[in-house]
Design brief:
about 25% strand; alpha+beta; Beta-lactamase; Alpha-Beta Plaits; about 600 residues; eight-stranded mixed sheet; about 35% helix
Length: about 600
């Protein structure tokens, strides 16, 4: 045999061997991928490559303007049960949980034995009933978790097979219900709702990252920390907030009212120093609070989400429009006959009486509906009035940094349901709806030389990249500085002339009372009102603007009786807390309805 055929035969042999090896490798790959041992190999592969895991950063902290912690984080533990590990020890597990945490043992047993509710579930989370008939996951603090862990680790302890502690980061509010409506709350999944927690949820949460946890070798794991959420410093002053909440509670209890709000704002820059609402909200236990509400979607913060007809406090906006448009002067005289017809609708004063000749100051002092309806319908006219109300932001969002804000309602001549009579009733705050924060923003233009500022509750944002101070925002300039000063002087005079109930010596304030009947499906209820007062000072250079709103007071329907004293008490305390010295003037805070 010649060398050439021998060489060819050897090449063919080698190629055949390689073909057999390749075929064997292909068969083995198929077995690994799809054969009976595929899960084993997959587990080994995961062990070598590492497991991916989503890691969330700690939620950002929230402080008041002086560094008082209002919202922080703590570790708590869920109680979970691995159903496959239960071996007839349901009553033992239930007994231990009941003894340590006070949960009824029969309730725990019922959860462990109701397997039909957890079809396909491998693990369940134990819950406890609340007073409202709902159920909430059982959580324990680190101390209780340590006791349970000791039971689980003790070989001589009762058989607790299946019971496990699952750690979770939980939002905590050290001050309890203080500023609860401002803060909002964080649910069990870590999502913020309402208030600051809802509005700044993305900022506070930070950004989760996907991390690869390697087992072989350990140092191969990527230990990247997720970008932390920002910390927020609020404009809220915890001392002022606590004081205001106390005044509101006492006013609610004394007047036997259904609820209310008091807001304190710096009119020069829109910083909200305090925002109190009743009923109170404890963000640590928001579930029962939600259960107490009658609405399907309860209003967590009525200061931004609860619209109402403002009544006579709205008259300051109408008078501001008339003064700015030049259609009235403070000393112009209106002869009040006790009624006026606008668009076929007869409007009367709050007391049904005729007050005779009155200047524009007297119209505000005695809160004459007839006079303001005259100014709106016969001096301003629809086009001018609604143009000014639009400038004041009525019917629009203020953009306050609190979740859940609504815009209120204002019908204009372009609205299909608007009638000419609306021109008269809107003049004294009927047939128009605002939120407390919206009215506060509008009146800030009168208190701030014509500039309407945007209310806000965040003063500083602190992150790993540094600190940021949001700049005050001006929403517009609806009136001139001259109009602002003229109307402020008129309101100071009207309050001083009506010095019947309140006396705050050494300080001068401007303000206006309001008493608004509450609309229903059958018209306005004569027995249910919203009593309110809005005022600012001390003069000159007001440091605070305060709105008091009391819903459905039973002791008296009038703002001068219910809301004005609350304003006076807040103002007395504010000048001390804010270090504002008195001057030689005397001011009494009473207004007509």
């Amino acid at each position: 045999m010649t060398p050439e055929p021998q060489a060819r035969r050897r090449v063919q042999l080698v190629m055949g061997v390689f073909s057999l090896v390749s075929l064997g490798l292909l068969i083995q790959l198929i077995r690994v991928q799809f054969g009976p041992y595929a899960p084993v190999f997959a587990a080994l592969d995961r062990g070598g490559r590492g497991l991916t895991e989503e890691v969330r950063p700690a939620r950002g902290l929230i402080f008041d303007r002086d560094g008082v912690l209002l919202a922080g984080n703590a570790t708590r533990y869920y109680l979970e049960v691995e159903l496959r590990q239960l071996d007839g020890n349901e009553e033992i597990v239930a007994g231990v949980v009941s003894a340590l945490l006070g949960v009824p043992a029969d309730d725990v047993v019922a959860q462990l034995t109701a397997r039909d509710k957890f079809v396909g579930a491998l693990r369940i989370r134990l819950t406890r009933p609340d007073e409202e008939g709902g159920r909430w996951p059982i959580t324990v603090d680190p101390t209780a978790a340590g006791v349970i862990s000791a039971f689980l680790a003790d070989p001589e302890a009762p058989d607790l097979a299946g019971l496990a502690l699952v750690p979770l980061s939980q939002r905590v509010y050290p001050a309890g219900s203080l500023a609860g409506h401002v803060l909002g709350f964080v649910n069990q999944e870590g999502r913020g709702y309402f208030g600051v927690e809802g509005f700044y949820d993305d900022w506070l949460t930070g950004r989760a990252v996907t991390v690869q946890r390697s087992i072989i070798p350990p140092e191969a794991g990527l230990n990247q920390e997720p970008p932390a959420g920002v910390n927020l410093v609020l404009t809220i002053d915890a001392d002022i907030q606590q004081m205001v909440e106390g005044v509101l509670q006492r006013t609610i209890e004394w007047s036997e009212a259904a609820g209310g709000q008091i807001i304190v704002m710096d009119p020069s820059n829109g910083e909200i120093l305090a925002l109190a609402a009743w009923p109170t909200l404890d963000p640590n236990a928001y579930g029962p609070w939600l259960g107490d509400q009658s609405e399907e979607e309860p209003v967590i913060n009525p200061a931004v989400g609860g619209q109402y007809e403002p009544g006579s406090t709205f008259k300051v906006l109408v008078m501001a429009a008339a003064l700015d448009a030049g259609v009235v002067l403070p000393d112009d005289v209106f002869v009040d006959t006790g009624e006026i017809e606008v668009g076929g609708h007869t409007i009367r004063n709050w007391d049904g009486e005729a007050w005779g000749p009155q200047t524009m100051v007297g119209c505000l002092e005695h809160s004459l509906n007839v006079c303001l309806a005259f100014v709106a319908s016969q001096r301003l006219g629809a086009e001018t009035l609604y143009d000014y109300l639009a400038r004041f932001g009525v019917g629009r969002l203020t953009g306050v940094d609190l979740a859940g804000e609504v815009p209120g309602q204002l019908r204009t001549p372009t609205h299909p349901e608007w009638t000419e009579s609306d021109l008269g009733t809107n003049a004294f705050g009927q047939g128009v709806s605002v939120t407390p924060i919206q009215l506060l923003a509008a009146v800030s233009a009168i208190a701030n030389g014509g500039d309407m500022v945007q209310p806000h509750v965040v003063r500083q944002v602190v992150s790993s990249e540094g600190a940021y101070w949001p700049s005050p925002t001006t929403l517009g300039r609806p009136i001139s500085a001259r109009t602002s000063q003229t109307l402020t002087d008129m309101l100071i005079e009207s309050l001083e002339d009506e010095a019947l109930l309140i006396d705050l010596a050494g300080y001068r304030f401007a303000g206006k009372t309001g008493t608004a009947q509450i609309p229903s499906d059958y018209g306005y209820d004569p027995n249910l009102t919203v009593a309110s007062f809005i005022g600012w000072g001390p003069m000159p250079g007001p440091r605070f603007l305060v709105l008091v709103r009391i819903d459905r007071p039973r002791i008296s329907p009038w703002g001068s009786v219910v809301a004005a004293p609350a304003f006076q008490e807040v103002a007395e305390r504010l000048v001390v807390l804010m270090g504002i010295p008195p001057d030689s003037e005397r001011i009494a805070l009473v207004g007509g309805e």
